[in-house]
Design goal:
Helix content: over 70%
Structural class: mainly alpha
Distance between the termini: 22 Å
Mean pLDDT: 86
Order of helices and strands: HHHHHHHHHH
Low-confidence stretches: 1-10
């Protein structure tokens, strides 16, 4: 009887994990397709080392020189990474929640933050190569360098070596830890106070995404700079020294380059993801129950 209990329990855990991965991956792809142009603009602002130009000026220049499709250049990199990234994040989050829950088996704010930060850090190791390729594809002048996402990955490995795909891993870990730790702490707290409903779900996710975005942006700026560095260029090496270089050369406000675009994406994006995740998860649950 213990064997059958164990098998049933394992199946239940596996089904939940699969549902989380499918729902998370589906929600993530929906968010990417809707919000990706803001991510391209964010990267352009972060890579610019001179005087920051206005949004209309940057958009007009990009369209005039590269066409409207520039706002979707490199989108296949995050789409391809979405399923494995979510698989690692959700399974890691479940694992870390088991470690950080209280003695009574419940989660408090510290537990939510610790498990979210740890899961985000783990996810960075899976996602970093895709981020490097995405940033290279989004950078100015990339059309002359790379034909496509596979071509960019191939050229990076051939010219700079396989380790180049992990450029910027340190600030990406810090960024992911800050963002996921805050998002997965604030969202359940707000939802508990605001109650159910899709509007409240969206608002909780959007507010959590906005706070997490502000906190993590300095590391995102350094990550983008590191990942766009060509072979042999070592201006930006480690996260904190690189932040010091950015502040020294461009001022304190430069740590928040691209913040507006990140807020536009990850604020509403956080709400969109939460609603899409719960909708897909509900459909999967209904499908499973209908099969019984």
């Amino acid at each position: 009887s213990f064997f059958f209990f164990f098998v049933s329990f394992s199946d239940a855990i596996m089904s939940t994990m699969i549902d989380n991965v499918i729902a998370g991956g589906g929600a993530g792809i929906i968010e990417i397709c809707l919000m990706y142009p803001t991510d391209v603009l964010k990267t352009r602002f972060q890579l610019a080392t001179g005087v920051t130009q206005s949004l209309p000026t940057v958009v007009n220049k990009m369209v005039a020189e590269e066409g409207w499709m520039v706002f979707y250049r490199g989108i296949t990199a995050p789409i391809i990474s979405e399923a494995p990234k979510r698989a690692v994040k959700f399974s890691a989050n479940e694992f870390y929640r088991g470690i950080f829950k209280n003695a009574d088996g419940k989660m408090d704010a510290k537990g939510y933050f610790a498990s979210g930060a740890a899961a985000g850090s783990t996810e960075a190791f899976v996602n970093c190569p895709f981020e490097v390729v995405k940033v290279r594809m989004q950078a100015p002048g990339s059309k002359e360098l790379y034909k496509s996402v596979p071509d960019a990955a191939k050229q990076i490995v051939m010219k700079e070596g396989p380790t180049a795909l992990y450029k910027g891993i340190e600030p990406q870990i810090y960024r992911n830890a800050a963002w996921n730790g805050l998002y997965f702490t604030i969202t359940p707290t707000l939802r508990e106070k605001m109650g159910g409903g899709r509007l409240n779900t969206f608002l909780a996710g959007a507010l959590a995404g906005a706070v997490a975005t502000v906190a993590s942006t300095p590391f995102d700026v350094v990550k983008s700079r590191m990942q766009n560095q060509a072979a042999g260029v070592n201006k930006y090496n480690f996260a904190l020294p690189s932040l010091a270089v950015v502040v020294q050369e461009e001022g304190v406000r430069s740590m928040y380059k691209g913040l507006g675009m990140r807020l536009l994406r990850l604020g509403p994006g956080g709400g969109i993801m939460m609603i899409a995740f719960e909708f897909i998860q509900g459909q999967l649950k209904s499908f499973r129950e209908a099969k019984k």
